[in-house]
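[Discussion] Sanity-checking designs against the backbone

I'm trying to build intuition for which residues belong where. Below is a structure token string of 402 positions. I'd appreciate it if someone posts a full sequence so I can compare it with mine line by line.
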């Protein structure tokens, strides 16, 4: 004899099948069945008209403010070994031109490494000992320029700008300095600029883009498939059937997110393999550190995908809402456009974009070979974003189940 539906949900004095099942222990076997089901049902769906109005408007606003071919605001570090009036004036001229943002002044060569490794400076100028004396006497003095070549376009522009500014300013400053000292100016001075490009000596743009593509693949695949996988169950009416199974909420959440995280890692591995084997972009850092940072980022993106699924009612809506998150992260993270070239207000907004922190980590590990000591603040911020987004999304998702 079959029980009525109310008995299945558990009436007065009866535990009910659903309530009893949710109280059961976490089962990896049930989780594996759900993971297998998700792998079978992976697919995409068309867009919806409801979200078409929002996404183009947002993209138009962001492209209008963010997209620019001008490169400015690059952070410049000065290593002043001469400590003379001429070197100080040259430093002031570089800072006052509006092209560079001063990153500070150091008095020893060893301090340059940490600035470039951690991204606190994109270029460094080294004024050697005796610079002022040589230029005042009309002799050639060597000035070293060190540039972070992980972004080829920024590096090329920075080198040419430093060369132009120092070449034009050295003569005027040396003549002025000689006049202050009551000396006759010597012959036309010359600066022998010795330029070194770190991390990407050939300034190949592919070395800069491949790590960024890996970041975008992890973001796109994980968030989109997570949102579509959950919304599909609601749209097809199978979510109610899943809710009366012995699956616990934790098992359902894990089962709906784990497959897409695995797929994202496979896609990221394919991007890295293609970048290494086809384009010759070599991973200079530790694969272990890269995997650790990727796992933290995937946690964040899973939270975004689950959050999108709680907002959308159809797969088309979920796809468009996710596209909104993806476009925002892509344009404000530094993936396409340098953050330093954006308006000051938009630069502050970029701190709310998780992809910004992950891009800095990946490019640091991939191109510079850095470890956690160079990017632990970015990893910490990424972890905070991940815990917040995933916890909020899991809470909203669990309330829907209850």
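Best answer:
Here's mine. Compare freely.
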């Amino acid at each position: 004899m079959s029980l009525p539906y109310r008995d299945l949900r558990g009436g007065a004095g009866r535990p009910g099948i659903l309530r009893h099942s949710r109280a059961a222990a976490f089962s990896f076997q049930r989780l594996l069945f759900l993971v297998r089901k998700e792998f079978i049902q992976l697919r995409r769906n068309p867009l919806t008209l409801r979200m078409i109005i929002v996404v183009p408007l947002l993209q138009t606003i962001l492209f209008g403010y963010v997209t620019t071919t001008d490169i400015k605001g690059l952070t410049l570090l000065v290593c002043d070994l001469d400590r003379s009036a001429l070197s100080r004036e040259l430093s002031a001229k570089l800072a006052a031109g509006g092209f560079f943002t001063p990153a500070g002044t150091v008095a020893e060569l060893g301090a340059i490494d940490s600035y470039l490794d951690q991204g606190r400076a994109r270029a460094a100028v080294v004024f050697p000992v005796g610079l002022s004396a040589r230029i005042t006497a009309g002799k050639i003095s060597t000035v070293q320029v060190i540039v972070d070549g992980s972004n080829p376009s920024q590096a090329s522009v920075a080198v040419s700008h430093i060369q132009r500014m120092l070449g034009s300013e050295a003569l005027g400053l040396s003549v002025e300095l000689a006049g202050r000292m009551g000396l006759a100016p010597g012959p036309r001075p010359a600066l022998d600029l010795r330029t070194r490009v770190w991390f990407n000596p050939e300034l190949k743009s592919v070395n800069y883009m491949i790590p960024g593509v890996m970041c975008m693949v992890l973001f796109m695949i994980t968030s989109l498939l997570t949102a579509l996988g959950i919304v599909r169950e609601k749209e097809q009416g199978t979510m109610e059937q899943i809710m009366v199974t012995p699956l616990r909420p934790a098992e359902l959440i894990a089962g709906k997110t784990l497959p897409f995280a695995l797929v994202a890692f496979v896609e990221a591995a394919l991007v890295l393999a293609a970048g290494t084997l086809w384009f010759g972009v070599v991973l200079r850092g530790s694969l272990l550190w890269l995997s650790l940072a990727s796992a933290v980022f995937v946690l964040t993106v899973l939270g975004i995908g689950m959050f999108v699924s709680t907002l959308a009612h159809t797969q088309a809506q979920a796809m468009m809402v996710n596209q909104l998150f993806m476009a925002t992260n892509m344009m404000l993270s530094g993936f396409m456009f340098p953050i330093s070239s954006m308006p000051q207000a938009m630069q502050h907004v970029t701190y709310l974009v998780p992809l910004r922190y992950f891009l800095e980590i990946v490019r640091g590990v991939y191109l510079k070979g850095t470890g956690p000591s160079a990017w632990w603040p970015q990893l910490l911020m990424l972890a905070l974003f991940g815990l917040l987004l995933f916890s909020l999304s899991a809470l909203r998702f669990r309330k829907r189940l209850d």
